[in-house]
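Repro:
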Amino acid sequence: MVHAADSRTEIRERVMGKAGLPKQPLPPLAEAVPGAPATARRAPSGGGRLYVIDGVRLLAALMVAAHHYAGTWRADRPGNAIWDRPVSEIMPTVFRFASYGWIGVEIFFVISGFVICMSCWGRTPRQFFVSRVIRLYPAYWFAVLFTTAFLVAVPGVWERLRLREVLLNLTMLQSGSRVPNVDGVYWTLWSELRFYLLFLVVVAMGLTYRRVVLFCCLWGAAAMIAPVAGLPLLELAANPDGAWYFIAGLALYLMHRFGQDLLLWGILAMAWLMGQMELGRRVAEVEHVSGWRGSVLIFTVFLLFMVAAALGYTDRIRWKWLVTAGAMTYPLYLVHYAAGTALISRLHGTMDARLLVASVVAGFLVLSYLVHRLVERPLSRLLKTGLNTSFARLRKASGVPGGTGVPG
């Protein structure tokens, strides 16, 4: 049997030979597809992962944990401080770096935009929905139950929610019902969910370079208008506090898939300009212990690193342990805050403060690995099978051809 590639080569050689034309290599596929950007040059990774992004995700989670444990003076409620005095007095050097760890959240948002666009390319809305459910909920359900149980066992540090509020937290939709989070870090999931809902529209239309660029521009415009429009629904959907970080991730993925061009650099530059303003707002209103210049510097270095990764300069990094590191990130983020700070509040004074923070971080890393292996993996498989079967029944009931089988 003759392979298709061999057949194509032979045909071209015969045609050129008969016509007396010079033999030249075929143009790249991107250049042959109408509507593809003229600078398209990088083939998509084709299912291969960017290992460095897994490493950056874990680094961002560790930054956030360090900030919560050693980079802020927790006095959210009277008598509810984690340490008995400001951390800047207990471990000043650690505090100086940890005070900027909150930027890990913005890093998460950028990576989320990149990864969601990459993982959804060529997928249907059903596949997008299933992938998000099996990725988000197993570890989240464990985290809600674990944190609730831990705060019952270690009372007096954080206020415990009522049972009905805890149960509503299992939906991940509590912010939409004005119900408190079991753990304060869950506020970021509300931003993620709104991003998924908006991006689902583009997935349903079919992801292309043009449509994703248009989505970035329209979402960015809505995010700029929302704060002054006086329309609560627009502000809720546009998510002006986080929109530009997700947009930066989308632009970076387009660079990775199609190559760089001036339009993508313009979107990324706009995201940086809007992001630095938002960083300044967070420093002024929430993160009083850090400075605007330092936070913008960290964010800028991160974006430049992501550009290098998107353009292929880090492709040689293929350390297998980075895959595991990336898998541990989400469970670590979910379980570290309320339980970890409650533990520190009880144990501070029993050992060196730096050793205590390092021990708590190490303990939650181990727990995160176990959650990934023993909770996420098996539960995700069950959910995927169940959801695919359910969608197959829907297809069959609606008379869609091919609905008798379970799509992959």
